[in-house]
Amino acid sequence: MSWLAAHAAELGGDPARVAVAGDSAGGNLAAAVTLQARESGPPLAAQVLVYPNVAYGADTPSFRDNTDPHFFNRTSVSWYWGHYLADPADGTDPLASPLRATDLSGLPPALVITAEYDPLRDEAEQYAERLRAAGVPVELARYDGMTHGFFTMTGTLAAAREATARTAEYLRKVLLPTR
């Protein structure tokens, strides 16, 4: 992020309008980057977290209830964590599990998107609520009837097109507030 902020102008960007975004594991990385940027810079203007995986070892109702083997499920979540962490003990680090951070104040405004039938739904919504409680402006949008991964299915799902449009509008509002 420091390199991007330092070179934003030569890339045609504005270092004051840098946002991070990601879905699933990418949402985890985006949330971790906001924590890191708060401590060491550069400041970020926004974060978009699409069904982010933000809590290693989360045992939530959505994690327990989403067991259909045809979809992303709790077995999938455990498999991915097993490949992400060098040691399960690393899962307590807030940069691996942002929901475990003790202080979420001072983070950039957030759009958090969740899906009804997603094992990550509850932890993502808990993260959004913790951000809000810490004074971070948050928009939370749950897409009922959707599964993990729906956001990438714009050619097939109206909800994906709606979520994509909502994301674009959110970024427009946060990054270009005068337009």
UniProtKB/TrEMBL annotation:
KW Hydrolase (keyword) present: yes
Ranges of residues in domain Alpha/beta hydrolase fold-3: 2-151
GO molecular function, one term: hydrolase activity
Active site per the UniProt annotation: 24
Transmembrane regions: none
PROSITE patterns with a match to the protein in the record: LIPASE_GDXG_SER
Keywords: Hydrolase
Top-level taxon: Bacteria
PANTHER family per UniProt: AB HYDROLASE SUPERFAMILY PROTEIN C4A8.06C (PTHR48081), ALPHA_BETA HYDROLASE FOLD-3 DOMAIN-CONTAINING PROTEIN-RELATED (PTHR48081:SF8)
Similarity field: Belongs to the 'GDXG' lipolytic enzyme family.
Protein name stated in the entry: Alpha/beta hydrolase fold-3 domain-containing protein
Organism: Phytohabitans flavus
